[in-house]
Design a protein that fits this description.
The structure holds two protein chains of two kinds. By secondary structure, chain A is mostly beta strands. Chain A has one domain (66-322). Chain A contains four helices and 13 strands. A 13-stranded antiparallel beta sheet of chain A has the order 1-2-3-4-5-6-7-8-9-10-11-12-13, with helices on one face. The longest helix of chain A has 17 residues, at 66-82. The model of chain A is unreliable at 1-39 (pLDDT under 50). Residues 1-10 and 14-53 of chain B have low confidence and may be disordered. Chain B is mainly alpha-helical. Helices cover 48% and strands 3% of the residues of chain B. In chain B, the strands form four sheets. In chain B, strands 1-2 form a two-stranded antiparallel ribbon. In chain B, α6 (100-114) packs across α7 (130-150) and α12 packs across α13 (260-273). Chain B has three domains: 7-91 and 397-557, no CATH class; 103-327, no CATH class; 330-391. Chain B has helices at residues 7-16, 22-25, 58-70, 76-84, 89-95, 100-114, 130-150, 157-160, 168-173, 203-208, 218-229, 249-258, 260-273, 287-290, 319-327, 330-345, 354-366, 372-380, 382-385, 401-412, 452-475, 496-511, 520-536, 539-550, 554-557, and strands at 51-52, 55-56, 164-166, 186-188, 310-311, 314-315, 417-418, 421-422. The chains are: A mainly beta, B mainly alpha. Chains A and B meet through α1, α2, β5, β6 and β8 of A and α14, α15 and α17 of B.
């Protein structure tokens, strides 16, 4: 149908018909007796179309230097030890309580957590946008369980203080470190995911000042009497500023020397993203369980680095900080 | 500015609709405006003023190309040039490709494919005005495309560039090196170490096309295939196996890899999708999460689909690789020319168009993959110039809302805004979809016909623009846009000559048609003016009424 017809019907009048626009119409071209114009852009029919070839810019990709891989792995171990979810929750709650007033944001206690939500400005000019619930307790005894720390945080939003500092976040954490009364077996677990950016003097020297993007689940165990330690980590840390931007940790486990004779070598895989966006994957062969029997040469602390199918050689990062601690890895 | 219309202007609508009124006859594009018009120039000499055989007349070609490539009607100087020498039209319209407004037009034109200019802002950015952020976010990939075409860059830059486009608003919310203190659209780079893959690396594209974990970027993969390769998986016929237990995740996963009905698409779709996990957002509403590229998620495919990145059987690793593979795909260049062809002709291509598309492809290859020569060839080709559907032409193109708004602004200075919004450029408070446009989310193709609502929008726009033009030209005659021949004191009985000259000029400016002083059309206009004047004896209102009728000429709705 001609696109004109609805318009003409809207006018609800008898109007002259539009000029014929289809092959079935008469007038115009038919009256002229002319043939339709020959397609003036068509190539001669016996010419084949030119083959399309795209020559990409030649880029010689070099694999990441193994020293850099080693440095990246050591950096991520050091960063992991800084990633304290308790510090996050406590700092966040303190920032919230400092800047909230009676009207902004809405704050409620629900079960053991405190919940807030808002899109508001306090009388002092602090802005709250989003929501969060959180809880942070230390030295808590429940039955015969003694918690060094227990807490959680989840939410999305931003708190902007009048002094220009702010706390912007999405994601959250859960964490607990506990033992049974009378036992030295202290166990901990932590899940930390998302991004928390805290600005201002108080944030300096905390991991929340660095803009890291974290998705980590980890567990720790130590026997306070025997001095044994172990750690298990899964996840990723991005936003690093050293030898790499991003490291993935897949089923990484380590045991201290009091727990395993293979304490230099982690189990699992650590992947380091190189500047070209490719991944260097380092395979380690340490014990998954503390008493796993490991071929002794595999306990040298060195993992084989792979860049795609290419064997780059061995990297031997010093990961002792992951087991060389006393009470909590993030102390 | 709202729509406050004088009573006389509204009355003009009623007079216009009175049956048998010669004004109505004048509102039929392609119809007989008079018994005497010049086929080459549109002057009154006796035949159809808008067509030469089956080709557009040079004047109509001038108007069509100007609206397509600049969003405005040609200037009086350009009209006069073509009147004087119809052959100048070719050089004139090719020159439109150098006009700065061409890049702006590309943004709107290609949105029919990208569909990113939506009002929807999923991410909760810290702003009191989400709509003003949604627009530049959606335009990011379109501005990259406009930059590539208008700056004569190789079209492959679209998927390989290490830069993007951003304005000052995006500079405050995204990790980009937008220059401090600057405003407007600028070439910038992301600073979050994301791959360099042109629009495939743009936040704007993947904000619009999100993904759930279970969809695993497959919808996005189809989007890139649809836009860049003109291959829409949803167009394929599917023989679906009803025995697959859709509630069993493992069974579905197995079927995607082994069931012939599923493999037909997923064997190539899923490897495409696996490139895009860096844009997977765990929390789509968080500016921190959705504003950044996530290298830590690039390998999520290992735990979701289990399908490694690849390009139609070719193993790949990164998003950069994907961009290079798309750039090297012969379908990419074929899609480039067919898309330009279809957008410029407002119709799908068919088998009869293949010779033309092949020729355009040859031009693209011969011109170092620059698209401007392709556009030049398109507007010089017989399809674009044809007034006959039977020979592949589009006799009348529908005026999209953006072209309606930009041409009315150019003609009269009027832009329909309310609450600080361009009312033809959004749907939240505006009328974009109602005016025949698309919102990119719920309405994904523009209207193929004028409908009740779009006609109503045009009517109100014409009335408001006409009133605005009269008011502003009266207040500032030195800079008058349309009313240069009258000072609003004339009356047909006492001083008809300036009024006739004014009406002739209006016709010329709006449609390129020259009418003799004693022609039926001019006489009808004067009659309409007199009838409107009789209502309130207000000459300004009468002129506004006449102009509002002229602005509703079908040659404004179609071109």
């Amino acid at each position: 149908m001609s696109p004109l017809l609805p318009l003409l019907s809207l006018l609800a009048c008898q109007t002259p018909a539009p000029a014929p626009t289809s092959s079935s119409g008469s007038g115009g071209s038919a009256d002229s007796g002319e043939e339709p114009p020959v397609e003036d852009t068509a190539p001669p029919s016996d010419d084949l179309p030119t083959e399309y070839t795209y020559v990409p810019e030649e880029v010689e990709l070099e694999p990441m230097d193994l020293d850099a891989v080693e440095a990246a792995i050591e950096e991520v171990a050091a960063v992991y030890l800084l990633l304290d979810p308790l510090e996050l929750t406590a700092s966040f709650q303190a920032f919230r309580d400092t800047h909230a007033d009676a009207d902004c944001p809405i704050i409620e206690d629900r079960d053991l957590s405190t919940y807030w939500q808002g899109d508001c400005t306090t009388a002092d000019g602090a802005e709250f946008l989003g929501y969060a619930y959180s809880r942070a307790d230390t030295d808590l005894t429940v039955g015969d369980q003694i918690y060094d720390d227990i807490g959680e945080l989840a939410g999305i939003g931003k708190i902007a203080a009048p002094d220009g500092t702010d706390f912007e976040f999405w994601g959250g954490s859960t964490h607990r470190t506990f033992r049974s009364e009378g036992s030295g077996d202290l166990r901990g677990s932590a899940y930390l995911f998302g991004q928390m950016i805290w600005t201002g003097p108080s944030a300096e020297d905390t991991w929340m000042d660095d803009g890291l993007i974290v998705d980590l689940i980890s567990s720790t165990a130590t026997d306070l009497d025997l001095g044994t330690t172990e750690v298990h980590i899964n996840g990723s840390i991005s936003g690093l500023t050293g030898a790499t931007t991003t490291v993935l940790l897949d089923d990484v486990s380590m045991y201290g020397p009091e727990r395993s004779r293979c304490h230099l070598e982690p189990a699992g895989q650590i992947s380091v993203r190189d500047p070209n966006g490719l991944w260097v994957v380092v395979d380690f062969h340490g014990p998954i369980e503390a008493d796993d029997a490991i071929y002794e040469p595999d306990c040298d602390g060195c993992g084989r680095a792979w860049w795609g199918d290419e064997d780059l050689g061995l990297v031997c990062p010093d990961l002792s900080p992951l087991w060389d601690w006393e009470r909590r890895p993030w102390d | 500015m709202g729509l406050r219309l004088p009573r006389v202007v509204l009355t003009a609508t009623l007079l216009l609709a009175s049956c048998g009124d010669p004004q109505v006859q004048g509102l039929t594009p392609g119809g007989s405006l008079s018994e005497d018009s010049d086929p080459g120039t549109g002057a009154d000499t006796g035949t159809d003023p808008v067509e030469v055989g089956e080709q557009l007349s040079p004047m109509r070609l001038l108007f069509r190309a100007s609206l397509d490539l600049r969003g405005v009607r040609p200037s009086l100087d350009e009209i006069e040039a073509v009147r004087a020498d119809p052959e100048t039209v070719d050089a004139l319209i090719v020159g439109f490709l150098d006009d700065p407004r061409f890049a702006e037009r590309l943004v709107y034109l290609y949105d029919e494919r990208f569909q990113t200019r939506t009002d929807v802002l999923v991410v909760r950015y810290d702003t009191d005005d989400p709509l003003s952020l949604a627009k530049p976010i959606g335009e990011e990939p379109l501005r990259v495309l406009a930059q590539v075409i208008s700056q004569d860059l190789a079209y492959t830059e679209l998927v390989t560039a290490d830069w993007t486009m951003a304005n000052e608003k995006l500079g405050t919310i995204w990790p980009i090196d937008y220059p401090e203190g600057e405003t407007g659209w600028q070439v910038v780079q992301y600073t979050d170490h994301r791959p360099s893959a042109g629009v495939l690396s743009s936040n704007g594209l993947w904000d619009r096309y999100g993904s759930t974990e279970s969809n695993a970027n497959r919808g996005r993969a189809n989007t890139l295939s649809r836009i860049l390769l003109c291959s829409d998986y949803l167009d394929r016929s599917i023989e679906f196996d009803r025995d697959v237990e859709l509630l069993d995740e493992e069974a579905v996963r197995d079927a995607l890899h082994n069931n012939p009905g599923c493999v037909a698409c997923h064997a190539t779709l899923d490897p495409l999708a696996s490139h895009l996990w860096g844009f997977y957002f765990v929390n789509q509403t968080s500016p921190l999460d959705a504003g950044a590229y996530h290298p830590e998620r690039e390998l999520f495919w290992e735990d979701t689909t289990g399908t490694a990145p690849g390009y139609f059987g070719e193993p790949t690793l990164t998003l950069d690789d994907l961009g290079e593979q798309v750039a090297g795909d012969s379908r990419f260049v074929e899609c480039a020319v067919s898309t330009a062809f279809e957008l410029m002709l407002q119709r799908r291509h068919g088998i009869d168009d293949l010779d033309t598309l092949t020729a355009l492809r040859e031009t693209l290859l011969a011109e170092d993959l620059r698209m401007r020569p392709v556009f030049a060839e398109l507007i010089g080709g017989s399809h674009y110039r044809s007034a006959d559907e039977a020979t592949g032409g589009t006799p009348w193109k529908i005026t999209r809302p953006d072209v309606l708004a930009s041409q009315l602004e150019d003609l009269t200075g009027y832009r329909f805004t309310a609450q600080g919004r361009d009312m033809l450029d959004n749907d939240t408070v505006g009328l974009r979809s109602l005016a025949g446009g698309m919102d990119g989310t719920y309405v994904t193709v523009p209207a193929a016909e004028i409908n009740t609502m779009s006609w109503l929008v045009v009517e109100r726009m014409a009335q408001a623009a006409a009133s605005y033009a009269v008011t502003s030209d009266l207040a500032n005659p030195e800079a008058a846009r349309l009313f240069t021949e009258v000072d609003f004191t004339e009356h047909p009985d006492a001083d008809p000559d300036p009024m006739i000259a004014q009406l002739q000029l209006l016709h010329l400016r709006l449609t390129g048609t020259e009418h003799a002083a004693d022609s039926e059309v001019i006489a009808a206009d004067l009659t309409l003016w007199s009838e409107l004047y009789a209502i309130d004896e207000d000459p300004e209102a009468a002129w506004a009424g006449v102009l509002s009728v002229r602005l509703r000429d079908p040659e404004v709705l179609f071109y």
